[in-house]
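Reviewer has doubts. Consider these tokens.
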Amino acid sequence: MNRFYFIFFLFQFGYSQQNFYEKWYSADTEHLPQNSVKSISPDKYGFIWMTTENGLVRFDGEKFKVYNSSNTNTVSNRFLYLSGNIQQDSLSSFTEDYSDNIFITNRKATKLKQKISKELTSEYDNKRFYLNHNNKNRLNFDLLYSKIHDTKGNYYLIEKNKISFFDKKGNTKSEVKHKYSSTNDYFLIKNELICMDPKGNYSLYKDKFLNLDKINIPTNSKIIYNYLSQQYFVCTNKKILLVKKTTNKLYLKTLHEQSNIRNYIPRCAYYDIKNNKLFIGTDNKGLTIITLNKFKVLTNKKNINNNYYSTIPISKNEFITAKGEIYNKDELVIDLKLNTLGNQYGITLDLQKNIWIQNDNKLIRFNKATNYKSHTIINFNLEVATIFCDSKNKIWIGFKNDSNKLAVVATINAYNKKPIPIFLKHIVEPVNFFAETEDHSILMAGKKTIITYNETNNKIKRIPTGKNDVRSIFICKDKNIWICTYSNGFSLLKNDIFYKLPYDTNLFLNSAHCINEDKDGHFWISTNKGLIEVDKKSLLKHLKDNSPIYYHHYDAKNGFLTNEFNGGCQPCNSTLENGYYIYPSLNGLVVFHPEKVNKILPSGDFYINEVETENKTIHFNDTLFTDRVNNRIEVKIDFPYYGNENNIHFEAKLQLGDNDKWTNLFNEKSISYTNLPPGNHTLFIRKLGDFSSKYQVKKITICVPFLYYETLWFKVFIFLLIAGLFIYTVRLRYNYIEKKNQELEQIIDERTNTLIKTVNTLKITKNNLTQEIIQQKKLIGTISHDIKSPLKFLTITAKHLNEKSLFLVDNSIKEETKVMHESANQLYRFVENLIDYSKIFIGHKDMNQQEKKNITWIINEKIKLFKSIAEANAVIITYKDFTTSQVIVNKKILNIIIHNLLDNATKNTVNGTITIEANTTKNKIYISIEDTGTGMPDEIRNYYINLHKNFETDKLAIQNYGFGLHMVLELLRLLKGDLKIYSKENIGTKVVIILDY
């Protein structure tokens, strides 16, 4: 009992943050067209509609779309109230004085063209008491003869002495005697008619009126009935209550309560049960949306600093902070003030419920036996980084980095009354987090490694962490190990490998503090930017097949005092036995039950039926037809969502080619394209809607018209035109060519006759040339017979004379006979060469008559021929043979060439030398004849060189320069040989011939 009073006293300074989030929208913030909101209702698709004094407004949770005279052609912008049927997608409203009848369907509002009947306006006036603008303190409308429609189209008719129930066709289904009173209130809940008097006594219509019970409606409360949603609100200065109905009973449920008196007067209201949001319209302050959260933030009202780190459960329904404060899920129970000035990064409980708290270089144990009034302090030389109690009641202590590389992990047996630390000398890495596996191995998070320590066999295994600067380790229900880091998100550690999970869209998971797992297998991850919920199955599936992951984000809009949660401590979250989770933050302790959290998932349907261009709005169904005038189009996505905008994940892909990729729209609800090419393009838009991590995909066809010159028929026309022009041009060309051919045929006929005459003439010429060649052959034969024979006889005679003169005494006669013999022999050889040369060019014989011959033999034969003449001129002829083997040459032609070159050298050399060299290199024969004679003038040398390069018979100057070298050049041309001449006057001449062999 004393404890009860003590706790009650402490409640005075224990403080729990109000569990709601309120946001205002008004004309001042440019959200609403005007601040007087007269009625509120959802439509079939989840959009919220409101009427104001300056337009009809549709709200999708983020943006307001206004319908007024500018886009609906209304006469007035002052709208009255909403009526109709939500389920049938049929809402309507009127403007002031019933000037315009506005029909709301398919998520948009249009003005009806037909005139408004008096019967319709009369019924509308009589409906006013149950439309959602009824906010009078006491009901005093005259409701007689009013029709109250249910959602199925049936209606109740209130008369003086009875209430009748009609079906939608107007047939009477039942009647109940009832005496009408203008002070009674008549309304529907769940399509059943309820009559309530001003004292709260109510009756329920069921074939007859059942006098049921009474509800206590607070005095001076304001009543608001939303006819379209059938919600009956009771508003006081601090509370908003909702009348709820069971089978035959009504009761009041508090939706919203605030500590201060409300500073506005509600005019209309709507409660979104699914999203747990309360929409309230006012007369002059606009719209407020109250999110009724299931998160609580606990703070100590007496403390200025409510920055929390480590917490740990101390009983089934209570937990203790590292400051020494004990809380339950609702409030501060007691402040033990165990650690008011020290750090809060580590706290643990041993199995005796002793509290261990780290404080810089100290570890303090507060003893349960003395109700935590006594304590034991253990001092260390190093700063304590973290503490942890394992299942064997052993306290593990990790220390920060030590420059001396001493042991930085110690253990204490918590069963010992006197705590004695034992250091693990084989672990020298600093440790900032401990975790225990199922087999009782201890995981230690170091700066660059994760250490696994098995106490049974004293084995240590180190796993490098790479880029993962580990902040905490979480072992989930299926024994998988998950790692949270400071700057690299979170990963699955399996088989000593880190499998990194992707970030959320906004990169909030870049710094992940710690993880907890609920009964549904969902992870709750605290970050510096709020709390993230994710389905573990989707994480594992992503690692298997790279499937998408849905991350659900909670932030200050869900009731937190700050988005920044705290990590870098142990434990960094706690779980009570009653299922509540505790996460420390920079401002308070966030407490919630994961099964009770209001999860507003973006799982609803979305719609793509509107496009904005540069100067107009286009509505369409599945196919959008654009023009080429508006180069930019913005495709709008209609999606009513009233949760955190960070949970919206839209992606779009426009198929223009084979490599089109999905574009992340983040939390935007539109995508723009500029200068789309002509043709039919398919636009895919998909949304990740809930923890199933499956996409909802929709597609539309965008038809961009071709300009006339881009159309197929125009291209076909141009093709046919070009083809016709081509055919016409070909035809003209054909006619022209045909005419030219006729002219050419005539010319050809004339020239053919001429050619025939010429051919006949050539035949005659050929015969004459043949006869001339025959005569030349006969001439050569005659020369051979008539000249060669006497020359040969003369040579033989000169030889005999020379031989006879050897016996004479007179030396001059010897010399003369010798010269005569050699001259006769030389003349004979010259004539023989000339005849061979003539035979070659006249008969074209012996051109290819090649044989394997020794060059030395040919050259020596010529040296013998010219030796006497050379000696007569005091000339010495030498020969140098560098050939390696016999070569295949035309002996006759080579004889003539060497003969002429040696003859020229002998003629032009007196008292000198003639050197002949022969060499073979790379299938070529090099024969050079070099003399020391008079040399060759430059004019003659250039003449022969140019003649060799460009041999033209008609330019020969034989009469000026002799016949010998011309004969050599002609023969070299026939053999495809080459000639080089090197000469200087009065020094000598060197002639080199080059032949293939």
